[in-house]
Specification:
The complex is a heterodimer. By secondary structure, chain A is mostly helical. Chain A is about 80% helix and about 0% strand. Chain A is built from eleven helices and no strands. The radius of gyration of chain A is 20 Å and the shape is globular. By secondary structure, chain B is α/β, with parallel strands linked by helices. In chain B, helix 3 crosses helix 4 and helix 4 crosses helix 5. Chain B starts with a strand and ends with a helix. The chains are: A mainly alpha, B alpha/beta. Chains A and B meet through helix 1 and helix 5 of A and helix 2 and helix 3 of B.
Amino acid sequence: MRTMLSIAWTEFRRLFRSPLAWSILAVMQFVLGLIFLVLVQEFLEVVQPDTAGMDNAPGVTDTIVSAVYLWSGIIMLAVMPILTMRTFAEERMNGTFTLLRSAPVSVSDIVLGKYLGLLGFILLMVLLISVMPLSLQLGTSLDLGKILASILGLILLLASFAAAGLFISSLTRQPIVAAVSSFGLLLFLVVLYISGKSQSNGSELFIYLSHFGHFLSFLQGLFQSGDMLYYLLFIGGFIVLTVRKLDNESLQR
Amino acid sequence: MTQEVLVQAENLHRHYGPHHAVDGVSIHLHQGEVLALLGPNGAGKSTTMQMLTGNIAPGSGQIRIAGIDLLDEPRLAKRHIGYLPEKPPLYQDMTVQEYLRYCASLHDLRGKAAVAAVDFAVQRCNLEEVMKRLIGNLSKGFQQRTGIAQAILHQPSVIILDEPTVGLDPVQIMEIRQLIRELGNDHGVILSTHILPEVKMVCDRVQIMARGRTEFADTLAGLENRRGSPVLLVGFETDVDEHKLTALNGVTTVEKQANSTYQLHINEQFAADSVCRLAFAEQWKITQITPQSVSLESIFLSIVHQEESA
C-alpha cells in the first residue's frame, strides 16, 4: 500500500520534471481562456438581450460554464494519450520498467500507483479549469450544484480516458504507438456517440457504450448513479486488463 | 560446502518462438562467492539473469533464492535480489538522491532505514558529489555507478550485475571491480562480462555459456588448470642449433619460427634460466625472452569453438 503511494507520488512528481505537464497545463489554460472569453462576450451581447424577460431563460451556468467543461473534455481526448503513453510504453523503452519488475512490488501496486499519479494530475487540471467559470461568481450568481456536477463529470470522464490510455500503454514499448492508439480508442467512443445520435438509424446501445453520452448528462446537472457506475466499471475494467496483461507478460508463450 | 546456498536454479529453459535462448541451464551460488557468466553475444546470459531476477518467467525449471521459490513467492524472493540490468534502469529526470530514495521505498524501506540505506549505497559507490544532480546530466560512469547503488542499497543477499563495467574509464573499472570483490565477501554476486581479465580479478567460479547451454562450469583454479604447459618465446641474433635447446632440462618441444625465434614448450619453472645459461656458454646473443602463458581468451575460445564444431 505504502509502496503504491510512493509510486504514485513519484509518478506525479516526475510529470512536472519534464516540460510536458507544464506545457499541457499552459496550453489548456490558454485555449480554454479564449473559449471562455468568446462565450462570455456572446452571452453579454446576444443571449442576454434576446432572452430577457423569457420564462426559464438559459442562465450563465448553462451557456458558459457547461460549454467550458464540454470543451475541456473534447481537448483532453487528444491530450490524455500523451500523458498515458509515458506510464508503461516509455518506461519500457528507457529500460526503467525493469526497476519496478525486479523490486518486491506486486503488479497491481505498480498499475494502481501509476493510475493514482495520473489521477493527481487530472484533479489538478480540473481545479485549474474550474477557476475560470467560478470567477463568474464575482459578478453574478451561479448554479453551484450544476457546476459541481460538471466538475465531477469531467473528473470521471478524464479518469476513464486515463484508464483506457494506461491499458493501451501497457501493450506496447513505443510511446508514439501508445499515444496514437489511445487517441484512436477514445475517438472511436465519441464516434459511437455521434452515430448513436444520428437521425436515420440511431442506437440507444451505442449512446450507452460511449463515454461521452454519460458525460453530457453530468453537464446538464444530472447526477445519475447509472452514469457514475458506467465510469467506475469502465475504469475498473481497464485497470484489471492492464494488471492481467502485465502479469502474463513475463510468461513463456 | 557449509555455506548457505543463495541461488539454486535448476534446468532453466526459455525460448522465443523456435529460438532456444536458454536451454537447460543450472546455476548455483553460495554465500561469499562471485560467479562469472561468460559467453559470446547471444549466449543467453542476459536471459538467464532476467529469469533469476523474476523479470521473465522460465518456460520450465525451478529457481530458489535464499531458499524461497521465486515463482511461488516472487515478492518475498525479490527482497533478496539486487539487479543491475544491461541498461541501467535510471529515470533521467530525477536527481541521484531522489532516485535512490525512490528505490529504497520500492524495497519498503522508510524513514531512517531509507536514509541509512541510501547513505550506505552512496558511500559504497562514491556518489557523494553528484547527489543533487539530474541523472540525465551525469557521465556514463556515474550513471553506471548509480545503477549499482540501486542494486546494493537494500543489502540483498544476491547481487546480479549484467556487464557492470561497460562504458567506464580504467580507474572506474578498477574501483567497481574492487567493489564487486568486497560485495562478494558477504553477499553472493553473479556477474556477466565479456572481459576475461576481469574474471580473473574478481571471480571465484566461472560458468561459460554458448547458445543457451552451459559449456563449462568450474572454479577459477579449475579453469587455470586447463591452460596446459606454458610457452617461452626466445629470439636469437642468428639461427642456433635446435637440438641443443631440446636437450635442455625442462624443455619439452622446440618449434622454430621466423627471424631466429624459437617457441619452447616448457614444463619447469627454471627453464628460462637454463636457456640463458646455454646461450651464455654458446655465446648466442639473445634478443628476447617472452613467457607466453596460454591466455584465458584462448581457453574460452577453445571451449566455445569445441562446442561449435561438435
